[in-house]
Amino acid sequence: MRIDRWTLLLGVSLLLVLAGCATTDEWATWKEHPTHFASGDHFFFSTRNREGGAPRVTREDIAMARDQGWWGKPITVSQEEILGR
Amino acid sequence: MALAVQPTAAMNISGSPHRPALPFRRGLAAVALAALPLLVALPASAAPADGTVLPPEQHTSEKGRLLAERYAPALQALSTKIYHCMPWVEVKRNGIGFYKPKHLDGDLRYLSINLYIDQQPSPEFAAYTIEERASRMFSRYVGPLVRRMSAPAGLLTDPSLDGFTVILEWLKQVASTPEGRPIHETIAAFMDRATAAEYVAGRLQARDLSARARVLGWDGETALGPLRLTSWDDDFVTTYKVSNYQLAPGVSCP
What are B120-155's pLDDT values in tens digits? Predict the structure, then answer.
């Protein structure tokens, strides 16, 4: 079967996309930590706080730093084991 | 999310060779859609305390729903205040609400808060026993939080309210699992309304608070059962300042 170049391009693109796909659990975890994508914020923090000046740390900076220092879903008790709705 | 670009009936990957543009555009759209989250830098925690308060309709009893409706603005204010004034602390999703403690029978409604304390683990802290670590965290946070939680007018005398729960979680010093997952320690402190009222009124000292509370502990997911703690006055919450922290405009902290 002859594969035209457009199909090939689409197939390769799809493979690239799917290779980057996370599992459902991983997506749930990432959705709980959306600032994982906040590298733009990191850039702005760095430009706002140049060397030598007094740094200013906002609540958003702290959230960003916390999320960027986060290494995976922790092992911990779930709230549902302690409290009922 | 990227899962949306998995091949579906709408995405014709067999594309007619006579109409190359269509599948090509679809391919581009798929790639663009997948890359969207990478390109759009979401503002970090743009909505303070968003999703931290359990909505009234998600309480499973009329008693819980009514409490949640009555004090909804106060709970949101509590969440926002913690977000800005205790920036090293994170209120968990649906972490604030009028929950039923699982170990108690009946529809007993405790105003509850579930916090992750973002602190660097240290060898000194790890050298303590779990009771000693829990006592330090209890002393540091439970009393001050109960004061804040009980602040809404009428709450402490509301007969529908049965008590308070403070859940504290922090990163454990020990190595993470072989898979690299960090392990957290958790304590849950429960106290009835009378105990909280006595403490807030100054009739119960901080050193007696832990004895009047029921405290359960967990090491990761493993229940440790009830813990016997000691407690004392600790002004950390009111005195600790994050270096160079700049409050958001219009926000003031006590």
Answer: 888 999 999 999 999 999 999 999 999 999 999 999
How far off is chain A from B122, nearest CA to CA, in Å? 17
The B residues from 73 to 92 touching A (CB cutoff 8 Å) are 83-84, 87-88, 90, 92
Q: Are A55 and A62 in contact (CB under 8 A)?
A: no
Q: How many CB atoms lie within 10 A of CB B167?
A: 23
Distance from CA of B205 to the nearest CA of A (A): 26
Taking the domains of chain B in order of start, what are their residue ranges?
2-39, 56-239
CB B79 within 8 A of CB B91: yes
CB A59 to CB B45 under 8 A? Answer: yes
Question: What was the pLDDT predicted at B179?
Answer: 75
Neighbours of B117 (CB within 10 A): 17
- Whether the CB of A1 is below 8 Å from some CB of chain B: the reply is no
Whole-structure pTM over 0.80, yes or no? no
- B80 pLDDT above the threshold of 80: yes
In the three-class reduction of DSSP (H, G, I as helix; E, B as strand; rest coil), residue B185 is classed as strand
Give the tokens for residue B121. Answer: 């683990």
Interface of B with A in 102-161 (CB under 8 A): 102, 110, 112, 114, 118
- Which among B97, B135, B159 is positioned nearest to B213, based on CA atoms? B135
Residue B181 near residue B152, CB atoms below 8 Å? no
Any A CB within 8 A of B99 CB = yes
Nearest C-alpha in A relative to B1: A27
Strands (DSSP E) found in B71-221: 89-101, 110-117, 163-171, 184-192, 214-219
